[in-house]
Design a protein that fits this description.
Blueprint: H1 3-23, H2 26-51
Length: 54
């Protein structure tokens, strides 16, 4: 999976979590927000490691 696909997947998970939060599904939305945050941090750290910034 390339970087664009990972970014799209992370954004999609975040938007689905936002919709879940608005509709009252707090446990599901919390899980989706957490997974989006973890995926985003992993992607950023991998990009930094590739470029030699870490």
């Amino acid at each position: 999976m390339n970087d664009l696909q990972k970014d799209i997947l992370t954004g999609t998970v975040f938007v689905i979590g936002l919709v879940g939060f608005i509709s009252g599904e707090f446990i599901i939305s919390s899980t989706l927000f957490a997974s989006a945050a973890i995926a985003s941090n992993v992607n950023v750290n991998r990009k930094k490691a590739k470029s030699g910034q870490i």
